[in-house]
Amino acid sequence: MNVTIIGAGNMGRGIGTRAAAGGHSVTFVDANPEVAEKTAADVKAAAKNGAVVSAASLDAELGDVVVLAVWYGTNIEIAKQLGTKLAGKVVVDIANPLNSTYDGLATAPDSSSAEDLAKAVSAGAKVVKAFNTTFAGTLITGETAGQKLDVFIAGDDADAKSKVSQLVTDGGMRAIDAGPLHRARQIESMQLLHITLQGTLGSNWGSAIKILG
Fold first, then answer.
1. Which pTM was predicted?
2. Which end of the chain is more exposed for a tag (fewer CB within 10 A), N or C?
3. What are phi and psi of 155, to 5 degrees?
4. Which of 5, 3, 12, 7 is nearest to 136 (CA)?
């Protein structure tokens, strides 16, 4: 698959590393072109099986999968800006909609970042929630404490979820289908707790949420 990652910061870099390591071509887009170029150059070393890693502008052709590796609010602004360019694309929302004090969620109780994004994208775009429970550092290696990362996936389109699951699996992680898109509410709440526990755990953003059994 060809993957476009909008947002070439730490999370974009981590997701791009896993995708490229899984043999998928990755294009980075960022508001700062130099950041996109630097991230692409860094991620090239992880590319396997002929995967191509590059940087481009937002005007370039988008990949089959478009990952919005940006903050909540910015994801919706970008979706509106792209408009019909997202039609037929799998759009991955990774945002955790934290409030201004980082102790709660900014979304309404009956919604989520992913559901808000789904209302903003053009007709035909398929929104999938994924990667919001994985910290950037753990994505570089795809594991923590010797365990594969679990990536919780929610969406209303089976084919779109299958494509994201393939990216996850090819990147050496475990995909967990959490159900329809409204399950993003629970996934985002779960990560809010995970974030707030970093001080208690002292894990320095190196922990992961894992289902065992």
1. 0.97
2. C
3. 180, 165
4. 12
CA 64 to chain centre: 14
Element (H, E) at 92: strand 90-93
Q: Letter for the amino acid at 14?
A: G
Q: How far is CA 170 from CA 94, 166, 205, in A?
A: 18, 6, 24
Tokens of 208: 């992961």
β-strand 126-129 against 150-155: which pairing, if any? antiparallel
The widest CA-to-CA distance across the chain, in whole angstroms, is: 46
CA–CA dist 129, 157 (Å, integer): 11
Which is nearest to 75 in space by CA: 40, 23, 42, 117?
Answer: 117
In this predicted structure, what is the pLDDT of residue 180?
98
Mean of the per-residue pLDDT values for the chain?
A: 97
pLDDT tens for residues 93-150?
999 999 999 999 999 999 999 999 999 999 999 999 999 999 999 999 999 999 999 9
Mean pLDDT across 51-74: 97
Residue whose pair of structure tokens reads 């700062």 in the numeric block:
32
Question: How far is the C-alpha of 110 from the C-alpha of 55, rounded, in Å?
Answer: 37
